[in-house]
From TrEMBL:
Residues 379-449 form the Disease resistance protein winged helix domain. The keyword Coiled coil applies. Pfam families: LRR_8, LRR_RPS2, NB-ARC, WHD_DRP. One of its GO terms (molecular function) is ADP binding. It comes from the Eukaryota. It comes from Camellia sinensis. GO terms for biological process: defense response to virus. Residues 14-98 form a coiled coil. This is NB-ARC domain-containing protein. Residues 829-960 form the Disease resistance protein At4g27190-like leucine-rich repeats domain. Belongs to the disease resistance NB-LRR family.
Length: 1100
């Protein structure tokens, strides 16, 4: 019995022990959960006493479990059991007391929030500016921040991201994680989840369900107060929700694809190539590698050339500099440079370290069509700006774009392809402010493309722009060649005996050479040829008859073969879809053209002697694009065109008003409107035809423009976008009166050297008194007239250029219906010029002011006013007010009344010096040679976007009324966007004499002042109509096809500028030093007078 009582007592003690430990274990679990959560949220470390306490709890737990096992196995005596139970209970009691942690669980210091990564020091102003912008975004408290660091391979995206990562670790309390994306993550979300989980020290190996893994990842992020996740080398859109990356986690990705940034909603930061100075600095740094390096001046010059061949790409610069480290032998440097001149990727280290990185971008392109289009860009010379439209026409001819689609759909697809290549950082965008769009291939990207085509399908031979004088040797024309580009060389002939065996050749580009003759045998074995481009071979006169047998030809391009007289019969080329005869000297349409039933693009612009027989055009029923010149326009052009129901683009130059009116009627009355047209009425032709707008009219030097009459009346298409009128005489004093009902969509308007125009548009007033009663007490306004003004076409105009308008008095005039003349300074109708972006006025000697009061110009970005000697103010002020007006009679609707009243406050109440002149988007203000200009505006000019101010020779201007924002200290500061204020050295005294309000305005603006040299008096006119002309070309040695354009321009200038008296002929200065113009003597009668000048000796 005693034994049983003892056993029963020990059982009670064991149960008490179990209960005590369960309470301790529960407290330990709570502490562990609490401390882990606090560590994740705050980044702080747990105290050592907490760590020790948890360790002791675990030790006691093991003691209790071991004791229970010994009791079950009866391996312990009752006496020993009692002692051990008492000891464990005592320890449990102590631990429970210690577990209150009155001083808290965590230390005040923070734990490591991610590991630092190895980084390279980043140099260069561009890089630092990009880093500063990204850092500023990260310091923003936005919870949804997503940043995309974009750029081509090897440009330094990862390096920038690593530096930002390490800076965050040191300077913020954020939890920072770095994950490099596996290339096959798009095939396995699970792999991406596992990679991110490792960064978080989270084990997902036992969880196979994707959604549950995502939930655990999301919870792990959520337990941390602030997180920044870096995902390096992202190639495709990542579904963050599916992976488990929650809202509130800041995200920074590096990628070569702008599409990835767009699809993931990232703010894009493009990593640009290094400037020449930055590139050389990096090259020298890596070449020296921290050691003293001494090289001869000759070696340094070659080293700079080697660095330049890397074209600003950091990866290439570092690779080349590393490979040449320690080399001081000039012969070795010269050898390396010669290798790079042939093909940068031909260098061993470049091919090993740089090529794979760049080629990865190509391999990730989606689909062979995109890859072929990319490779096609390598057919152009190095560093070439490629016209997007030209490239797309090649794609169409190659069949890379579906030829059966409409022209606009084909071009839309082409632009989509080029956009994708740009967003993949394989092409660079080169769109200019005038709307002309180009793309460009980085030199190393081009080398990579050529490397691909050396060994893989398709096989290319590219020797473009390398100065070839002869056709490549026959052994280079291998049987597997598919595309050959020899463009922009100096090849003069393809001699007899040259007959390359290239049965697979589909594209042959010989554009921009100096070909005089081509042997008939040359095309004998090119039966698969689809594209033959001989454009800009200005000396060739006759094409070989063997071209007639190229039955698979889809495009024959002969543009600007200036002397070309003969094209062989083309009747057998039934597959031909594009024939370009622009600028040739042919006299008749090649035989068989009317049989080309698949012809879609026929261009015969600038063919000054070509005549087309009646009925030829009407047979080409599949034409989508047609270009004609004045001599090639059939007499009854409208009848010929009516059968071309598929026509989408029409470009024509005519020399008589009757033909022009016929064409406009054709354009107006088509059931399906044309997508593009370029119509020119002129007695001479011009090559420099801006195609920035889809629907343009150019009217030059042909007759008078009237507002009524017989044949002089000419119409404009209703959907016109761009209008250029030069050298005309207007019988109406208002430009808009002539074209009132037309051109509602006009965006660009240039009026040059026209007489009779006093205003661009007018507001009509009905009145019972004479024009001398401007300040009388009563004026009646006809609402219908005002309503028409309000809907004037100039509401849509974005660019307005006014040059040499000798009678122009103002942009807007007001006229009384009783037959009185124009007055100026009236309030403009609401919406007038409301979309104007650029205004340029030059040589308008009767203008006294530019803008009328109340004119709203919310989109105006650039104002240029030059050589207007009577202008006294830019914004019309006191003289234009109606301060004596007592009675105003209106006949209009309420909506029209609102339009009339807008801005009238200024006119009724006279001068208001506090009335601001607000131009919210103005970036550039240029005032040049305005001898009577006294003020820009009476009040202040608010230009929050101003970047550049140029004021030259405006001696009477007293002040710059630029509004200066107030900084935090209550002091005026310069507009944030302002970059420079330019004056000449002649204007320094004027600058010092300006009146400033407040007085310290000058001190604020002085740091932005830039002083240039004395202004030179070049002719203010452009290319036409003055006695002297300066043609400045950007190329030191322009390729031959540029010369042919220049010669055609000189021919025009010689005719238009030839003086009626015996005064000396005009001189044309050219900025290139080439003795190459004697070749034009027979046709253009131009005599070379040295390397730098041409003199036109007579009319042509």
């Amino acid at each position: 019995m005693e034994l049983l009582r003892k056993l029963s007592g020990q059982d009670e003690k064991m149960q008490t022990l179990r209960n005590n430990f369960e309470a301790l274990d529960s407290r330990a679990a709570d502490v562990k959960t609490e401390v882990e959560d606090a560590e994740l949220r705050t980044g702080k470390k747990r105290k050592h006493e907490v760590e020790n306490w948890l360790r002791n709890v675990e030790r006691v737990k093991n003691g209790v479990q071991n004791l229970e096992q010994e009791v079950r196995e009866r391996k312990i005596s009752l006496l020993l059991l009692g002692n051990r139970v008492d000891k464990l209970n005592k320890e449990i009691a102590q631990l429970r007391e210690q577990g209150s942690f009155q001083g808290g669980l965590l230390l005040d210091v923070c734990a490591t929030r991610g590991e630092s990564l190895l980084s390279t020091e980043l140099t260069g102003q561009t890089v630092q500016q990009n880093m500063e912008k990204i850092w500023a975004c990260l310091m923003d408290d936005s919870e949804e921040l997503r940043i995309g660091i974009c750029g081509m391979g090897g440009v330094g995206k990862t390096s920038q991201a690593v530096n930002i990562h390490n800076k965050l670790r040191k300077n913020s309390r954020d939890h920072v994680f770095w994950c490099t994306i596996s290339k096959d993550h798009d095939h396995s979300i699970g792999k991406l989840q596992s990679d991110i989980a490792k960064c978080l020290k989270l084990n997902l190996s036992k969880e196979k369900d994707e959604k549950k893994r995502a939930a655990k990842l999301s919870q792990a992020f959520a337990r941390r107060e602030k997180c920044v996740l870096f995902l390096d080398d992202v190639w495709d859109k990542i579904d963050l929700h599916r992976v488990g990356i929650p809202h509130g986690c800041k995200l920074i990705i590096t990628t070569r694809s702008f599409d990835v940034c767009r699809k993931m909603g990232c703010k894009k930061f493009k990593v640009e190539l290094l400037s020449k100075k930055e590139a050389w600095s990096l090259f020298w740094e890596k070449l020296c590698n921290g050691e003293d390096t001494t090289l001869s001046l000759e070696v340094i010059d070659i080293a700079k050339s080697v660095a330049a061949k890397c074209d600003g790409l950091p990866l290439a610069i570092i690779t080349m500099a590393g490979s040449m480290r320690g080399v001081d032998d000039i012969r070795e440097w010269r050898n390396v440079f010669e290798q790079l001149k042939e093909l940068t990727m031909g260098h061993e280290d470049m091919e090993k370290d740089v090529l794979p990185s760049l080629e990865l971008s190509y391999s990730r392109l989606n689909g062979m069509k995109l890859k072929h289009c990319f490779l096609y860009c390598a057919l152009y010379p190095e560093d070439w700006e490629i016209s997007r439209d030209e490239l797309i026409r090649y794609f169409i001819a190659e069949g890379l774009i579906d030829r059966s689609n409409s022209l606009i759909r084909k071009f839309d697809e082409g632009h989509t392809i080029l956009n994708k290549l740009e967003r993949s950082c394989l092409l660079e965008n080169c769109t200019y402010s005038d709307g002309k769009a180009f793309v460009k291939m980085h030199d190393l990207i081009r080398d990579m493309a050529l490397k691909i085509t050396e060994t893989n399908h398709p096989r290319f031979m590219v020797k473009a722009g390398v100065g070839l004088k002869e056709i490549p040797h026959l052994q280079e024309w291998t049987g597997n060649l598919e595309k050959v580009s020899l463009r922009s060389n100096m090849i003069e002939e393809i001699p007899c005996g040259q007959s390359p065996r290239c049965p697979s050749l589909s594209t042959l580009i010989l554009e921009g050479n100096q070909l005089r003759s081509i042997a008939a045998s040359f095309f004998k074995h090119m039966h698969a040829l689809q594209i033959l481009d001989l454009s800009f071979n200005y000396l060739i006169k006759v094409l070989p008859n063997s071209i007639s047998d190229l039955v698979k030809l889809t495009a024959l391009l002969l543009a600007n073969c200036t002397f070309l007289l003969y094209v062989p019969p083309l009747g057998k080329l039934r597959a031909l879809e594009e024939l370009d005869l622009t600028g040739t000297d042919i006299r008749e349409v090649p035989q068989g053209v009317d049989m080309l039933v698949n012809l879609k693009n026929l261009n015969m612009e600038d063919t000054n002697w070509l005549e087309i027989s009646s009925g030829t055009l009407s047979r080409l029923s599949h034409l989508q694009c047609l270009g004609l010149s004045c001599t090639s326009v059939p007499v009854e052009i409208q009848v010929e065109l009516e059968g071309l129901t598929k026509l989408e683009e029409f470009n024509v130059h005519v020399a008589d008003v009757h033909s022009f009116n016929q064409i406009v009627k054709f354009v107006q009355h088509r059931e399906v409107p044309l997508d593009r047209y370029y119509l020119q009425l002129a007695d001479y032709d011009m090559d420099f035809w801006d195609r920035s707008y889809s629907k343009s009219v150019r009217w030059m030097g042909k007759g008078r423009i009237t507002n009524g009459g017989e044949e002089d009346v000419s119409f404009l298409p209703y959907d016109l976008e761009a209008l250029i009128i030069r050298n005309q005489w207007f019988t109406s004093d208002c430009f808009c009166n002539v074209f009132w009902g037309n051109a509602r969509h006009l965006q660009f308007c240039e009026i040059d050297n026209c007489r009779g125009i006093q205003s661009i548009l007018s507001v009509c007033f009905s009145s019972t008194f004479s024009s001398s009663s401007r300040n009388k007490e009563e004026i009646e306004v006809d609402g219908d007239q005002v309503g028409e003004s309000r809907n004037a076409p100039f509401q849509s105009v974005q660019i307005l250029i006014l040059v040499d308008l000798q009678d122009l008095r103002g942009l807007i005039g007001w006229k009384k219906l009783a037959g009185c003349g124009l007055g100026f300074g009236v309030i403009a109708p609401h919406g007038t010029f409301s979309n104007l972006r650029e205004l340029c006025i030059s040589n308008c000697p009767k203008m006294k002011s530019v803008f009328t009061p109340g004119l709203q110009l919310p989109h105006l970005e650039q104002i240029t006013i030059k050589n207007c000697n009577e202008i006294e103010e830019i914004l019309d002020g006191a003289r234009t007010t109606l301060s004596e007006l007592n009675r105003l009679c209106l006949s209009c609707s309420l909506s029209e009344l609102e339009s009339i009243c807008e801005g009238m406050e200024t006119s009724f109440f006279g001068n208001n010096y506090d009335m601001p002149f607000i131009l919210p988007k103005l970036k550039k203000l240029e005032l040049d040679s305005l001898s009577k200009l006294e003020c820009i505006c009476e009040g202040i000019m608010v230009c929050d976007s101003i970047e550049e101010i140029n004021i030259i020779e405006c001696p009477k201007l007293k002040r710059l009324p630029l509004f200066l924002p107030i900084d935090n200290n209550g002091q005026p500061s310069a507009p944030m966007t302002l970059e420079e204020i330019n004056i000449t050295s002649n204007d320094i005294d004027w600058w010092e004499s300006l009146e400033w309000d407040p007085p310290n305005t000058k001190d604020v603006l002085q740091p932005f002042l830039k002083i240039t040299g004395v202004k030179t008096n070049f002719p203010s006119r452009g290319l036409i109509g003055s006695a002297d002309h300066v043609l400045r070309l950007p190329l030191a040695s322009p390729p031959p096809y540029q010369i042919c354009r220049i010669v055609r321009l000189l021919r025009v200038l010689g005719v238009r500028s030839a003086p009626a008296t015996t005064s000396p002929p005009p001189v044309f200065a050219m900025d290139f030093g080439m003795e190459m113009l004697l070749m034009f003597a027979t046709k253009n009668r131009l005599v070379s007078t040295g390397n730098m000048q041409l003199s036109s000796t007579c009319k042509t």
